[in-house]
Predict the structure of DMT family protein.
Amino acid sequence: MNPWITITLLVISNIFMTFAWYGHIKLEQMKIFTDATPLYLIILMSWGLALFEYMFQIPANRYGFIGNGGTFSMMQLKVVQEVISITVFTIFSVILFKGEALQWNHFVAFVCLVLAVYFVFK
């Protein structure tokens, strides 16, 4: 199977995951949620988004895994997913949370993740 299908599914999955995990914070900043919003409603909204995350994550892992005809080992899938996750989160935080500035250590950490991808494929 084409590895780009797996990567695309992982990107879509991580977009949903990031909104499920952190989107409620932005909605609170936008005054859509308030301190009075019950936590269970925020959790249910996040679970609803997480359903879509899983609708892309599970196929990405199944199709991408070498044991199912894909091109990635389990370790490679996980490391690629982590790099995609931190990339999506970084874009999310820079665009939606404009007060979150990237620091030099963030770039160093990202380089370390890229190195992790390099080494896991060796």
